[in-house]
Amino acid sequence: MEKSKKIKIYIGVFYSILLFSFLFIIFSKFSIEEVTSYEFIQVNKDKLIEFKETNLIITIVIFLIFTIFWVFLLGFASPIALLGGFIFGKWSGTLIVGLSLSLGATFIYTFGNYFFKDFIKKKFTERFKKLESNFKKNEIIYLIIFRLIGGIPFQIANLIPALFNVGTKNYFLGTFIGLLPALFIMVSLGGGIESIITQNEASPSLIDLLSSPEIYIPILGFVFLLIVTIFFRHRFFKN
């Protein structure tokens, strides 16, 4: 038991070092102002798209690896979805982002299930105890619904299924399928941003952005998905 605790401490320290190193490398190269400026994005967009078109497989592999590290270290899915849409477009981007995030989530699920299952049970059992019977009925169906309805931070949602001993294969498939609707909307928005940057030399106004079909259609899709997820939440997880 003492040895197990030491291993967890070492892993926690290693995780923290890796996280801060990752953030340091990113922000030592660019400031937040640079990365978020319209000029920076516009200047580097063409280089990024050109590299993708001449090195598609390499770009996909780099994106997969980057996403796995991103999910493991930071856990936010939305920036990856926007970036995927920006680089790969709406349809290909949805599949690539879905695969990347599902692999990253499965990796962290396996990691957490092996090293931190006791902690996860202690922290979340009471809160999610009533879901156990649902997962026992059909774990892949309820995992899909669990992913679809959202409402839980992505990093935490990656670990919750450890409470119900979900199999790795079902976890990956349930995550991939359940994430697709929301990802399609976010990836479409990322693709729309890329299209607008291509069409506009100067930064467009907020009104111009919202009046563009590439932007307002994904936003309407998000509103519709929100209504659907609220229905599912009350229908399947009302208790």
Q: How is this structure best described in words?
A:
By secondary structure, the chain is mainly α. The protein has one domain (31-236). The protein is built from 13 helices and no strands. The protein has helices at 2-29, 32-36, 38-54, 56-73, 78-88, 90-115, 117-128, 132-137, 139-149, 154-159, 168-199, 206-210, 213-236. Helix 11 (168-199) packs antiparallel against helix 13. The longest helix has 32 residues, at 168-199.
What can be said about this structure in brief?
This protein has one domain (31-236).
Tertiary shape? globular
- The sequence of SSEs as H and E is HHHHHHHHHHHHH
| Estimated structural class | mainly alpha
The radius of gyration over CA amounts to 20 Å
End-to-end Cα distance, whole Å, is 36 Å
For the residues shown, what is the average pLDDT?
A: 81
Share of β-strand residues: under 5%
Identify the notable features of this structure and list them briefly.
mainly alpha, 239 residues
Please give the structural blueprint.
Layout lengths: L1 H28 L2 H5 L1 H17 L1 H18 L4 H11 L1 H26 L1 H12 L3 H6 L1 H11 L4 H6 L8 H32 L6 H5 L2 H24 L3
